[in-house]
Structures are given as C-alpha cells and as structure tokens.
Design a protein that fits this description.
Elements (H helix, E strand, L loop, with lengths): L32 H7 L19 H25 L5 E7 L6 H14 L4 E5 L5 E5 L4 E6 L6 H8 L4 E7 L8 H11 L3 E7 L6 H15 L8 E3 L3 H13 L6 H4 L3 E3 L2 E6 L5 E11 L8 E4 L3 E10 L3 H7 L6 E5 L26 H10 L2 E3 L8 H4 L5 E3 L8 H4 L6 H5 L28 H6 L3 H19 L12 H4 L33 H10 L12 E10 H5 L8 E4 L7 E9 L10 E2 L4 E5 L2 E5 L2 E4 L5 E5 L1 E2 L4 E9 L6 E7 L5 E12 L4 E3 L4 E9 L2 E5 L5 H6 L5 E3 L4 E8 L4 E6 L9 E3 L1
Parallel strand pairs: 1-4, 1-5, 5-6, 6-7, 23-28
Antiparallel strand pairs: 2-3, 3-4, 8-10, 8-17, 9-10, 10-16, 11-12, 11-17, 12-13, 12-16, 14-15, 18-25, 18-27, 19-24, 20-21, 20-26, 22-23, 22-25, 26-27, 29-30, 29-34, 30-33, 31-32, 31-34, 32-33
Amino acid sequence: MSMKPENQDQAVHRPGPAKQDNKKHKTGRHRSKGTLEILKKGRTAQNSAKSKANHQLSRMERRHQAKILRKTKTENVLNEKRRSLNVPHLVAVIPLSNNVFVNEKLMEMTNVLQKADVKLKTSVASEGYSHLWIEQFKQAFTFIRPDCSSVLGLLDTLKVVDTILFMVSADVGFDQDVDLLMTCILAQGLPSTVVAITDLEKIPIKKQNETKQCIQKDIENWLPDEKVSKIDTSTDILNVLRRISSQKKRSITFRDKRPHLLAEELAFIPSSDDNVGTMKVTGFLRGQALSVNSLIHIPGWGDFQMEQIDLTSNDFIKSFTGKDVQTTILETANPKLQENLVCENIPDPMDAEQTWPTDEEMKEATSKNKRMIKRVPQGMSVYQSAWIPDEESDHDDENTESDEDSDDFYSIEDENSDNEIKSMLDDHMETMSMTSVASEAPIEADKYDLQFDLDEEEKILNKIKEAKADQMFPDEVDTPNDMPARIRFQKYRGLQSFRTSPWDVKENLPPEYARIFQFENFDRTRKRMFKNLENITGAMPDWYITVHVKNIPSKMFHSRDARNPVVLFGLLPHEQKMSVLNVVLKRPSTVHFDEPIKSKSELIFQCGFRRFTAEPIFSQHTNGNKFKYERFFHQDSIVVATMFAPIVYPPCSVIAMKYCKDGSFQIIGNGSVLSVNPDRVIVKRTVLSGHPFKVHKHSAVVRFMFFNREDIDWFKPVELRTKYGRRGHIKEPLGTHGHMKCGFDGQVKSQDTFDIC
C-alpha cells in the first residue's frame, strides 16, 4: 500500500512577466561599485545595433521595382541620344581586303543613296573627313579614312571613334596583314563594330551565299558575335547606317574617363619665336569636360598647355538644324591655376645631409665602369695577351654568362641604375615584316649570302640558347673560375624564405628615384580623380570648340603626316609626371614572335592614349611583397613589366611592341596597367649548384659549387637545399679546391643535386 506525498496538492508559485529583477552586485574580483563608477566616467553608452529582419518583397513589388529600374535606364539612354543628336557619329572605315578603296566606296554609297531619292546632306572637312546627314534617321555621320599602312597612326585614330566599319571584298577575301591589324585593335580596346561585304554581285548567284558564310566564319575568329552585312543596294546601305546609329556604343574606359577631340580643322599661328607657335584645333569635344587650366596630350607629339578655348559654329550642323552659334571665348588660361609641364622632380642636394653627385661625377663614374675587351687569337696565353693594347667598348659580350648577371641587382633600384641598360639599345632582333613577304622565285646562293649577317645570326642563336637554358634550369648560374664567388655575388643575400623574409623597400635607392613622384595612396588618389570629373567646369561634351594649344614646335606641325588625323586628349592631374609604372603583359596567341625577349630590351609601349619607349624589367605576376625577376619574357608566360614612365590611371590597356631592323615592328605582348608603385621590390634569384662527391647517411662531400676555400667560408651561413627536398648547412671546407663537407636533415642520395639559392 503506497502513501501519498504530503505536498503533492500544494500550488507552486511561478513568476510572471512583471517580476522584479534586482540588480546583481557582481563587480568582479577586488573591485567595488565605487571603483567601477570611477572607471565609467566620461564613457558614452554603446547603442547596440538591432538587426532588422529583411523585408521579403512580394511578386507585385518585385515587378514594380524592375519596371522602375527599366524605365530609369531607358530614360538615361534616350537622354544620352537626344544630347548627342546633333553630334556626328564617328565612323572609321577600315578595309580588310587589298582591292577595297575607301574613298571610292564612300562616293559609291553616297551616289546610290542619292539615286534612291534618300534625303541627305554631305560635306567634306578641311582634314578630309566626309560628313553625311540622313534625314530619315535624323543622324549625322563622320567617316574617317585612316592610313592602314601605318598601324600606329591607325591606332591613334581608333582611340576616339564610336564605330569601326570593316569592309571585306567578296571577290578577294581577307588580306594577309589582318592578323597583326586585328590583334593590335583588340589589344588597344575595341569600340562598336560593323562588318560589311562589298563586290558580292561579282560572285555568281549560286556561290554568293557560300561566300558570305565563309567570310562570316573567318570574321568570327576575331569578332565572335559579329554579323556580316551587305552594302550593294540602297536598302543594304540604309540598313548598315541604321545599325551604326542605333547600336549601343561600346565603352572604352581610358577614353571615356578623359576629354578627347578629333581635329576637323587645324591652323598654326607662329609666334615671335619662329621655332614654336600656337596651334588651333577645332572639333567636337567628347568624353568629359575640358578645363583650359589642365594639360592636353597629342599622341606622338607630347604634352602641352592651352591658352584659351572658344565656342565655334559648325556650318555642317547649321545646314540641317538651322541653329547658329556665335564664336565666343569660353575660358582663358589662368597662370596661377594652370597645370605645369614639370615631369621630373628636382632633387635637393642638401636633403638629409646627403652629398648628391653632380652630372660631371655621374659621367666620370660611367666612363670608369666601361669594360675593357681584348681580341686575343685562339691559343694565346694570359701572359702573351697582356702585351696586346686594350680596346674600350660600351657593350658587353653576349656569349658570356656574366653579361646576364653582371648587374647583380636584388631589386628594381639596382637594376634601373645599371649601366648595362645602354648596351641593350643596339640589341635588336631581325624579324620578317608582315608586309614584306619573300618571293617564291628561287634566289641564287651568292646573292643570298650578300644579305646574310653572320654576326647577327650568332647573336640570335646565343639568345635562343640562353632562353632555353633559362626555361630548363631557371635561375641557375655557373660559378666563375676566374673570379671569387664572394666578389661575384657580393650583392646577393641568402633568404630563408622568399615569401616571409623581410626586405626594406627603401634600401639602396638609386639616384634616379629622387627625380620621380610617388603617391601616398595611389588607389585613393585615382578614385578621387575620377570622382572630381563631375565638378570640372569649362567646355562641356558634345560642344564644337576651338582649342588654342601653345608652344607647338613649328617643325613638328609642318612635318606631320596629313594621312593620320590629329587626336587630342585631356590629361588628369599628375598624369604628366614620371614614376614607376607596372603593367601586366602576356604574349598574343595570334601573332608569333619566336625570338626571345630579354629583360632590359628597348620596347615600344602604348598605354591607352600615350605611347613611349622604355627598357623594362620583367617579374612574376604573383601575390606577396617580393617578386622574382624574370630574365626572359617567354612565349606562354604572364609577366609584369616595370619601367620609368609617365603616370597613367588604370584601367588602361597596354600594347608592347618591338622594332625590327627593316623598319617594321612586331607586337610582343598586350595587357593592362597594374599599378604606379615605386615600392615594388623585384628580387633577382640566383642558384649555385653542386654535385655529390661522397655520400654517407646524413652527410655528403660536395664539389663544383665553389673552387676555393675562402668562398666556402663566406657562404657557410647560407642554407643548402637539394632537388629531393633535403635541407642542410656547410660544415667545413676540405682542401683548397672547393670540396666541402655538408650535413643534412635526412638521408642523402647519390643522384641528388645541391643548391644555394
């Protein structure tokens, strides 16, 4: 018989929400409430951010939101079209066939439209451009005929056009230079494109469709999404013009972020000094607003200042709009606010109490560092060769290994100050031009040998051998027999870890670094410059203006090629100044340049709107604070080229080219601007290798790494590594001929190779 608990039916009190919650007096160990109040004085209460639950939009709300966004984008596009309605659409006509003559085709297109009773107006600018206005579209066009024989002039023209009209003859097909041409255009930045077929009526009717499909297939190699059109009848021409005017303009960042102008009229006013004068450039301003106090850049000419900007009337626009604009002065340069043309910093000789070398001292040091080269008959001893007179030479012998590593630099600072840069100016590579194709006719051996340069062939062969050796055994260098290794590699240091070992970026800066400019925070400056574009006052986009550019050399103006248009770009602040420019490059797959590209070779760079020559050094494109120096720009590699160059704000496309001896050039790489950073440390890595002489468990006797006892003692603190992953140190030298005893952290194999790197 079980007994009932005594308190089973007794009610239990449960506190409700209004229960009083007394403050806990847990002040922590050895601290009273008074101490906490003293510590709390002056502090503000921290407001805890309450996270609000995200409101889930209903289906109707999402539809309404998408409708508003779509309407806003449509209004922006329409406003942009209305704003530029009276501005001609720039069209560059580029033939891709030999028998396509642009002038005749444009006249033929105009005649076909006039015979079809299409209402239009035509005009020709003083620089040779053809203006066309179609009443049906209410759109004006400006057709530019660039000189395709000059690729650099063609690229300058394509920097400012809105659309490229490629013309292909159905009767002939593509030209043999199309690969080089299209590679350069795509590398620079491709605007909107239209591909048109001409001479299709010359093809039999049964083969016209097949011919069009073949051209469509070929053009897809460069423009995969492009559809080929015909321009034989008036309907075809109107369809092409409608497509040009209505298609979306492709954005090119380096162009759209800067004011630019295509010169339709040019005039030169000589000043009191006959060597210079003022050039008046007239045309439609595009891109961004242009201030008279800023600087402008003319590709191939340089940077210049402006005197004033005028608002000018355009007779062609007046003919179909009826609106006339009186010529008025918009802005006049203010000397106090105008940007200067100073591109280099002037170093202070007394800065930091450092004695600065003068120009005479620099020239004297350069002359002392010239190498003495002797031409010695084969088999002559060193004692006999001492009686031969010395001959000074400014260039290095490329057949020796010391040519590549005699600079012994460990960062960009030492490399840029190396005197061997000058010797690379004459190191050109002989390459067949795209335009000069060898004839198929047989050539006599004697005539062929007259054009054969044996010395040049040997130089190219040695370069190819060096490039292959660099690919097979990267960074490995033979220890010289005639020079102590401790002197040969005295600028090098042993790094325990390439990634984590510290390196002072301001150590041993060359004198040239005192003449360049550096940003405290380059990314922040770039963002601020792009943001300030909205606040610029002056000439606005789509205005027809006249820019007065001062101090133009008269010889430069009168010697210009009239076939290449004059293009004007407005510079952002600081873009005229020199700094260290880093660009990422890769080898193009469509154009093959088989000769190796050695570091410090003279190359032509086109960075957006600017073109210059430089002697860059190559490094790996990796993460970290140190980057390994690359001796060659190999075919399937991506490298970073570092050079002294004017400042360019990214994003900006880059093309690297190399001149050949026949006057032509080859494109060797394309990419984009990475940064403007003088603190980028480029480390040259050198590996000294040795071979095992005796092996016993964890120790080995190594030879052929050094050839004297003093070098072994010098490199004793540096860690040894093997190809099989063992690590160790030099214990002691054995004898006087470079043998040394080494200990490792594991079993050593007899087929292993020992390195110091």
